[in-house]
Design a protein that fits this description.
218 residues, mainly alpha, three-stranded antiparallel beta sheet, 8 helices, 5 strands
Length: 218
């Protein structure tokens, strides 16, 4: 399980992904570039227009890869122009970068720390680790109630449609990847249980309905 490849970073362009792939390879980390083409998951709230290039690495390499990117960012900090936009951020906005580090690149994350320190704020590993833990707990929470999709799933499953099978399967099994590479289920146990029921109903009804339609055509 630890050797499973998980999403490490997402980029808007292939060029950015290639740069990271090259940097990781120089440091002995294998990676996979994948285009996250919208799947059935996009039905459940994801925006199909937010197509991005994913860099995936082994979960055991996450810590090392993070350290490589942080070191690279630290080396660039002293070269940053004073008109860089983060210098205009308030204290609260800078702390938000530290909390939501997964939404920012490593350079901005490191620079936010430096700016806060320059403003007399204490930034240490204990604080950063605490913020990362809090963020992981936030992101690990299951998605909101999926009542409308559950109703639709039962409806299509009972009618014998393939869509019921698909909805049930993804409600039951869909997972999301946290910034540390850990994968957790996307939906609550209750919604996943409904997804399982929908899937098995569809698994029984769909072939039966197909057979009936086939026989009627003879």
């Amino acid at each position: 399980m630890e050797n499973e490849y998980s999403i490490f970073r997402k980029y808007k362009t292939l060029e950015q992904a290639k740069d990271l792939e090259e940097l990781l390879l120089k440091n002995g980390i294998d990676s996979i570039i994948a285009d996250n083409v919208p799947s059935v998951d996009s039905m459940f709230g994801a925006n199909p227009l937010n197509n991005e290039i994913e860099i995936r690495i082994k979960q055991t390499d996450f810590k090392k890869a993070e350290q490589i990117l942080e070191l690279q960012a630290e080396n660039l900090i002293n070269e940053v122009d004073k008109d860089y936009y983060l210098f205009e951020f308030t204290k609260e906005e800078l702390y938000e970068i530290l909390l939501k580090s997964d939404e920012w690149n490593e350079f901005d994350y490191k620079l936010a720390q430096k700016i806060l320190q320059d403003r007399g704020k204490s930034i240490n590993e204990e604080l950063l680790n605490s913020l990362k833990k809090e963020r992981l707990e936030q992101l690990a929470k299951p998605e909101g109630n999926q009542k409308s999709w559950i109703i639709a799933g039962y409806f299509f499953a009972i009618l014998g449609g393939m869509l019921g099978l698909i909805i049930g399967y993804f409600l039951w099994t869909s997972k999301k990847t946290l910034p540390n590479g850990q994968k957790v289920y996307s939906y609550t146990n209750k919604d996943r249980r409904h997804g399982k029921y929908i899937f098995y109903i569809g698994l029984i009804v769909f072939p039966t309905a197909f057979l009936i339609r086939f026989l009627n055509q003879l």
